[in-house]
Amino acid sequence: MLPFIHIGPLTLGTFGLLVATALLCAFFVVQVDLRRRRLAADPHTIIGLAGLAGLAGAKLWHALETPAEFFRHPFQELFSPLGFAFYGSVVAGLVTLALLAWHYRMPALVLLDVAAPAAALGYGIGRIGCLISGDGDYGIPTSLPWGMSFPDGIVPTTQRVHPTPIYELIGAVAIFYYLWRAGSKSLRKPLPAGEVFASYLILSGLARFLVEFIRINPRSVFGLTNAQAASLLSFLVGGVLFWVVKRRFHV
Questions:
Q1: Strand, helix or coil at 150?
Q2: What average pLDDT does range 165-189 have in this prediction?
Q3: Residues of the domain holding 88
């Protein structure tokens, strides 16, 4: 594992580098999608603001998962380079995208459809940052041949464990491909605004819910991890949204 890269006096976190790579890839996806949909919006602004809001939301969500520790050391928790929670970035990103849609005078669901494939791909790339840095996002011990140990990670373990970031990368790329194709289909045959985004909520929620069964996160609500509870909510909200937009489209 390689948590940090040292270049002279400069120390770079590999997780941060992969997050930057994820945002760069998300930018290109959004840029191309805006062009093919012929929408007047600036991808630099969309990714810049949504990315910053997502990072802030992810940090705050992670800090509030352990409120006692947060209130004991609030500044240390908020400004630590470690510890981010995906669903915090989702909530903050959604709010930012809704405001940007208002700014660009377009329906919020249209902009969310544009952002959904980029979010799926960016998430998968970011998970490789978790893998390389060994930040504790790995799974439970396994005897499978592709099990990995992280002796030099930020959260080290010498046991062979499930490399869950790799599982999540594979799932994220598959979800990205499906959403991108759905967007392409909408150019040939009109689809209801919000269908791609609803599919993103359903598929990403299902993928995270399943992988949490072999993650090392502590259980809390009804025997589920916090991420599982949030992913279940994502799945349900996505399902309701999918039904609503489909029903309105055919009325």
A1: strand
A2: 95
A3: 4-189
